[in-house]
Known about the structure:
The protein is α+β, with helices and mostly antiparallel strands. 44% of the residues lie in helices and 17% in strands.
Amino acid sequence: MQEMPSKTEKTKTICCYHCGESCDDELLKRDERSFCCTGCLTVYEVLNENNLCDYYDIEAAPGTNQKKQIVRENQFDYLDDVDVFNRLIDFKDEEQVHVTFYLPMIHCASCIWLLENLYKLNPAITYARVDFIKKKVQIKYQRKETNLKSVVSLLSNIGYEPSINLSDIEEKISKKYNKKLIYQLAVAGFCFGNMMFFSLPEYFSEAELLGTGFKNLFNYLNILLALPVVFYSATDYFRSAWIAIKNRSVNMDVPIALGIISLFTYSLFEIFISGQEGYLDTLGGLLFFLLIGKYYQQKTFDTLSFDRDYKSYFPIAITKMVKDLEEVIPLIKLNVGDIIKVRNEELVPADSLLLVPEASIDYSFVTGEEIPVPVKKGDLVYAGGRQKGAAITLAVQKSPSQGYLTDLWNHETFSKSEQEDSLASLSNRISGKFTFTVLFIAFGALIYWSFNDFSMGIKAFTSVLIITCPCALAMSTPFTLGNVMRIFGKGGFYLKNTQVIEKLAKIDTLVFDKTGTLTAPSKATVSYHGESLTDESKGMIKALVNFSNHPLSKRINQWLDKVKPVVLENVEEISGKGLTAKYKSKTISMGSALFLGLGDESKVVNKGNEVHLVIDGMHWGVFSIASGVREGIEKMIPDLTETYDVELLSGDNNQEEKYLKEVLGSKVAMYFQQSPKSKLSHIRAIQEQGKHVLMVGDGLNDAGALKAGEVGIAVTDNISHFSPASDAVLDGEKLNLLPQYLNFAKTGRRIIKASFGLSFTYNAVGIFFAVQGLVSPVLCAVLMPASSISVVLFTTIATNYKAYRMGLNENEMIKWK
């Protein structure tokens, strides 16, 4: 007789053999081992069949959780495209292919062991080597025995799906460097070298041995060499200074241009009138070193990638219809005349003609207007529109442009007023005042020395103008903010522009959406209570929720995993409220009790969000979804409440308030049953109190609130569902790192201010020696780019060091400590 388990055994948590997570929601058994989902079990079976279970001996529960949304079988079909293949691979010949993938799921020694034994799972793979630090794997395979799609499918099946985005397959455009600058530098270098050669006798006081004729000849040759320096190599400085003066302003090139003109003019006076050698060699050296500094700045800007990595969040594939069959192709391969399918909440990638009787297109991505526009068959649907409701088919009329989608995100409709005290504008104002101060000091030094030694006056005047160039001051802000933006992008936090960093640093109030933002559909549990569901009714529900990207719809969709959906008509989704559709003669609706007119008749069955089901006016039942917060949120929110005012806005009822208070802490102010308009009004009310608001939402129902906040962050798990009203896009898995991002934004401001101090200190010391005539213009020309280099090095090293100390790394984001 089997013994009854003890009370302790009953309450003991059973953990998954593969990933280590609890098996509370689902428990599967195989070989006396427990698994939390079919995904983990499948990976185990694959490894077991290939005698690779040593994977589990290296570390306990080394795998990653395999609970994920159902993906279409043709998900990786775009990898069969020749152009995409050629852009992704590292090398190919007739026999083999080399390719490198970024695998974000790599986390332990077992991962390395498994990936480097891929050849046991697929004999066509001949080599696999993991770079653990960069989370990359280089794979070599025999192209006659397998293909790229099969390799990626294999990696996905064992829990290591590669991260492939638009930036990986986008055609790289080679940067065109400013060749004119190189030519100007070459001319200045050639002339400077020869002028130094002709001036050597003067440096060694041997000019009298040459005789007057040779001395004058060398002076005249120096004049000839100085002409291309002044009238070619220095032209950009003259042009920039003239444009500034025409616009009644002063930029940093004005003092440089004045220094060049004064040095050239005085040298001509010295040679032709006074019979002296002049300072033309000094002038040549001055331009040569200035242009070296300018070239260095250009190269540094090219090296530091300030690209907006949000391109990684644009869809790389689109569903193309070929003889009524779906074929997933890369967006870059979409051509005029192609027939495409666009599902609910997906973006229309190109101007297209509607082929179905009607559609409802949300153009808020283009115009900012939230009301969907009804479109009839044969009408033109513009790129950037978002489909609302049932999937539609379209005929492409114009080639898609990824750059156009980028422009839409930066559309003036979603622009926010700039901060008056932004560091960028502060830098510009300081640079202007600084230049006027420099000119005043330079002319003062010239007048002072002219009474005793006019030659010394010219030297002091030119030295002051050159050594105090505010280049370093002007460079500190863009270099610091650009580097911060680059570090954010590497960590899955994509900003619209660098001004967002400055706004993040001033935030004092955080407002979070709940469903899909703090909570994760994959961590929710579903239970149904009501009339029994037939196969037909399940198919109706499956088809209805399949049209929605709302987190609750997604969870019900997963709950009906293996149900075959029926074909619905007149599908309509009311944002944040519910869905309705027709099936044969029946009307099916799902949503909140208020939306369905149930009022107080609905009973609370269980804690959690409720989605009611009504068929032909009859309340059929209710789905109760118990939310689960994203990983790390239970620590992140209490930590944030120590520094910020934190509020939660939710369109759901308050059934989960007690649970959320326990998880998030009692300091979080919570407001429920908030419509999109209510959220917008709430944020404006907070701002009227003088507070600076950061709104964090899922981008589906929060467009107004995201736009209203000083900063709006769209948290997304789906690359095609972010909101144009947001200032940033944040990978849902990285939401728990938000405190780090906010801290790092403040650090960036402090680094900029420190670089201002460094630049002022350098210039003050330089002026002190320059007004006394203790430094030559050539030495000043060397020190001026050196100051710029020092500021760039300071800001770059400081930001990277602070990122490292905070746990932000360019190759991976490690846990916040």
